[in-house]
Design a protein that fits this description.
Layout lengths: L2 E4 L11 H6 L7 E6 L14 H7 L7 E3 L5 E3 L2 E6 L5 E6 L13 H12 L7 H6 L2 E8 L2 E6 L6 H5 L9 H7 L13 E7 L3 E6 L20 E6 L3 H9 L5 E3 L3 H8 L4 E7 L2 E8 L9 H10 L2 H9 L4 E2 L23 H10 L3 E2 L5 E3 L2 E2 L1 E7 L6 H13 L4 E7 L2 H7 L5 E7 L7 H4 L16 H12 L3 H17 L3 E6 L1 E7 L2 E2 L2 E2 L5 E2 L4 E2 L5
Length: 531
Amino acid sequence: MAIVLILSGCASSAGTGSEAAQAANGGTGGTLTYALATTPDTLDPHRSGWAVSVRVFHNIYDNLVVQDNDGKIKPWLAESWTESKDAKSYTFKLRKDVTFQDGTPFNAEAVKFNLDRVIDPATKAANALALVQPYDSSEVIDEYTVKVNLSRPSQAFLVNLSQTMLGIVSPTAAKKYGDQFGQHPVGTGPFEFVSWEDNASIKLKRNENYAWGPETVSNTKAPYLDGITFSIIPEEATRIGSVQSNQVLAAETVPPQNVLALQNSPDQQLLQADTPGLPYTLFINQRNAPWNDLKARQALQSAIDVGAIVKTLYLGTYKQAWSSLTPGILGYDSSLENKIQPNVEHANQLLDELGWTKGADGIRVKDGKRLVLRYVDGSPNREKRNDIAAMVQQQLKAVGIEVQVNITKDVATTIFQNQAYDLYGNSQVNADPNALSAFYHTPAKGARETLSGLSNPQLDKWLDEGAVEKDTAKREEIYRNIQQWISDQAIIIPIYIFPYTIAASKSVQGLTFNHLGYPNFNDVKLTGTGG
């Protein structure tokens, strides 16, 4: 993963309030104020499906293992582990010095409780359920040894255990609060939950007892900060303006038009990390005609000018996506880059061949029915995704497709319950190509359907093989085949690779990113000077 710290100038900022106090104390103490673009859905890691939630509860929970920026799996709450010969079980030796923030001891029973909780239908787990597959059961060998059994081998399992959505929650608190645990989160992490004012702020405080951080951070003890206050500021100009006016010390998701000013600012800095996984992608719903026809989907591929969208909206600060995976993921196929180019003439030819002819208003008609595409996107306008919808609407109008854009706050009902869409965008932060399975594999009976409604035996076979193949070269080849097939079958329209950006006062020092691009606050100090 590419991690970049962009600093300019070296002017000083005296700092006020807690900042000034910390300057006299070597930068120790104080509260970091951090503006988020959207409010989290829940602080229960097993039930959340949002990256913004992870940015908050990443500080509350720890994991059994950690993945470093070279992709290697290292110990964390688990000191060591062994894999069985059939690759269907792992035996973890746990640390003996860890306690949850509510005083509950961390042990093998706690690990078993957590993994069982994720697969329990009553939990209604979101991304965690896909990550924990193919978990089957756990056996407590002794107080600090647990054997984890899988229903089949998985090369992604250890990697997935490093993701915060499989963070270890307090069994005591989870049982006490039940469905409300997400409002009362308790883990073993470096910060403890204090309060959550809906759509306003979330407050955390330092876990004074913390002494078991992973080797991926410099400070493995209690954080230097007294706490973190996450403020919810959806409007991007207000959010970044809050940093520039010193109302908050840091804010996420910097608008492209503000990047240059931050780079040249004597008082602020720009922090950035590319996020690996699945890029922001438009999924074509094949349950609906004519998008179940390859030629119709290829027409969308040719008519949508992704390059123009990315350049216009992101001013060179985002990279165009070309595949179903991002660069940096094992098996990423760079041969897809620049392969599909906009071609309005070809799009028109394909639609003509399908019998859709342009009417008097330029919209195509067949058998008395207009060619309509329903494009659904969520609110608020995260990462200018609503603007993407508007540009796609204009581009497809040029080839005779009427795009009806529906911006909704209730994405779950529209997409997953009613399936009332033809085009919908989504992405996922992940470290392993097995993440493709949740989006493209035929779902198990009773499981949630994929966004594209896709079901293909050959694709399923590749995905199943990729999940268990131990030979890295062979595994890479499998995932290249998958990416090529998805592209050739016009299953999706990849749009952009998301760079997670932070505008911060230069008084904020030591902020780093983990392997998935989430900010680490273990090492952060607030100083009276920047630069």
